[in-house]
Design brief:
With 320 residues, the protein is an alpha/beta fold. The chain is 40% helix and 16% strand. It has a single domain, classed as Rossmann fold, CATH 3.40.50.
């Protein structure tokens, strides 16, 4: 584990425009996917994958730096988030998002790429790297969230044994009943149309972000769309019912691509203990800790985050 506290000065202007890059739409299996691009098309591609409740605008403080460093930077809104479609009839979990990301690599990028994911996006990038490795060069997850990292042992992550059918059916029924009972139609509008949204965003940051209108737009605008609540309910059900093979412990053990973890030292949403647990499942996994940061080190400490990413990529045998 490496703990970083200093910041090497970044040489390009500090930019935090959430509308970075050229915006596009792509049709994937009848669903609209919003994506953007910044950098020279001839440069090697790097795909940014946002976290829960966000969109690719959350990479406002990273994309310009990475593009200036010689990468062709893409950002993609996952189905259910950002400006992409918000269906309520699909199993919205990391397997579906990995298929979406693989389709994006095949049909839009069309070249082997580095994947950089924040939180949920890190889990999606890892899933894509395991299930669809051909177009994945390397993966960076900042951080990697999955409750099963604290629940499963390395032996359990390798298990192919399925639970009895009656237990699986009972779990499915209970999860669906609980998710339907959640009063999301009351909670979500109350959250996004009041100062509670600022308080919710603040939990992901160590430093104060109250009054950051750009950040409020990144989180609040998608949540106000008509499909946000059904998509959130569908995601809650699907993520709870994933098989072991789709959880982070199993994925880490099967990954055949280089991977770096970046963690905020003061992350209260996905504590640093989870990062240490990741190394139980992959002994060669590098973990860099950024001090003075919460759950969003890429946005809270962008200079240091960008330096870590670029330095690690330069150390890989990937033709840079």
């Amino acid at each position: 584990m490496v703990v970083l506290t200093g910041v090497t000065p970044v040489t390009e202007p500090f930019i935090e425009d959430i509308d970075w890059g050229a915006h596009h739409e792509w049709n994937w299996n009848g669903l609209i996917c919003h994506w953007r691009q910044l950098g020279e098309p001839t440069h090697p591609p790097l795909v940014l994958v946002h976290g829960f409740a966000a969109g690719c605008g959350h990479w406002r403080r990273n994309a310009p730096t990475l593009a200036a460093a010689g990468w062709n930077v893409y950002g993609m809104d996952l189905i259910g988030f950002g400006a992409s479609s918000q269906p309520d009839s699909l199993a919205l979990d990391n397997r579906l998002w990995a298929r979406q990301l693989n389709g994006f690599l095949q049909e839009v990028v069309r070249r082997p790429s580095v994947l950089v994911g924040h939180s949920l996006g890190g889990l999606v990038a890892l899933t894509c790297g395991v299930f669809f490795p051909d177009l994945v060069v390397a993966i960076i997850a900042a951080p990697l969230p999955d409750p099963t990292l604290l629940m499963l042992s390395p032996d359990m992550a390798d298990s192919n044994r399925r639970r009895p059918l009656w237990r699986r059916r009972t779990k499915r029924m209970v999860v669906k009943l609980l998710c339907r009972a959640l009063p999301l139609e009351v909670i979500i509008p109350l959250l996004v149309h009041s100062p509670l949204l600022d308080l919710a965003i603040q939990t992901a940051y160590l430093g104060p972000v109250m009054g950051d209108l750009g950040l409020r737009r990144v989180i609040g605008r998608p949540a106000r769309r008509p499909g946000a609540i059904p998509a959130l309910r569908a995601m809650s059900v699907s993520m709870a019912l994933r098989p072991i093979k789709a959880t982070a412990p199993s994925l880490l053990k099967r990954l055949a691509r280089p991977m770096l973890l970046i963690w905020g030292e003061e992350d209260i949403l996905v504590p640093l203990d989870v990062g240490w647990q990741c190394q139980r499942f992959r002994l060669d996994l590098s973990l860099t800790v950024i001090s003075g940061s919460g759950h969003c080190p890429h946005d809270e400490k962008p200079g240091l985050f960008n330096e870590v990413v670029l330095a690690w990529l330069m150390g890989l045998p990937i033709g840079r």
